[in-house]
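Weekly modeling sync, notes
Attendees: S.R. (lead), two postdocs, one rotation student

Agenda item 3: backlog of single-chain predictions. S.R. asked that every request posted to the team notebook include the full sequence so nobody has to chase files. The rotation student volunteered to paste the first one in as an example of the format we agreed on. Action items at the bottom.

Example entry:
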Amino acid sequence: MKVKKKNKWKIATVVLGILLLISFIANGIPYSDYFVKESRAEDAVSFVNDNLLGGAVESKLVGVEEESGLYLIEIELQGRSTQLYMSKDGKLLFPSAIDLSQDVDIPKDNQNKKENIPKTDKPTVELYVMSFCPYGNKAEDTLEPVYNLLKEKVEWKIHYIVSVDGNTVNSLHGQPEADQNMREVCVMEYNGLDAWWDFATYVNDNCGSDGSCWEDASGEAGFDVNEINACVESAGVQFMEEEEKATNKAQATGSPTMLINGVKTRAVYDYGNSESYKEAICSAFNEAPQECEEMLNSESSGVSGSC
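Predicted structure, as returned to the notebook:
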């Protein structure tokens, strides 16, 4: 009597399931743990895609394993591999972890962010961001009160972390971010930094991770949408080539990165704490202006990380 093909597949599936269960038992792995681990990893990838990348690009799950009581999750994003940690209950996600059993080699410029920043009469502050990086946006929000306080007493420079291949501009969060980077540089080049703050912060606060309402931002800031589009079309790639050179020279690989008089400062990661930003910048004056005595918001957001 012949066994139907459909029944053969059912039998094969059952056999494979039994073999898989035997493999778990032989290796001391609880059967349910494997599926919980995979489910947690998939939840982490979904969170990254929906909340950190906003659907502009997608990360993919490479693998997951247990390490030191956590799940170590490896993901791939635009051809690059990175690791995340998640608590086993699936409630906490960590972008990185510090191995306390290893000695940490702290770079000299980070050992004391104030004392190692050279002093000048007019400090130069450079902020390197990606327009849709949530951490870069937090740094912009934190820096804005300091900018408004010190204005012309500081040389301010805003740069974008991109790469250019011919006429193609590449940014971590996809083409919408590359387009917005070019728009923001156009606003800054032709209207100045005050206008840039108005435009960029409106987009950050209202337009989501794809900048869909950027034209509304233009109207609020008093810009002509057609002029911005014309600038992007005629000079956008050229501006991005200049941004790529600047970021490579500064070795700014993560958004945000802040340099004060050419020295990277970890103060940039104290999101929400404008007073911390102000103190780091004011420490770079030969003679700090009176504005440096004014207190700004000193409450950290508790958020950490970068793009």
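Discussion: group reviewed the output briefly. Strands lie at 60-67, 70-77, 80-87, 93-94, 124-129, 155-160, 163-165, 168-170, 257-260, 263-264.
Action items: rotation student to repeat for the remaining queue; S.R. to check formatting next week.
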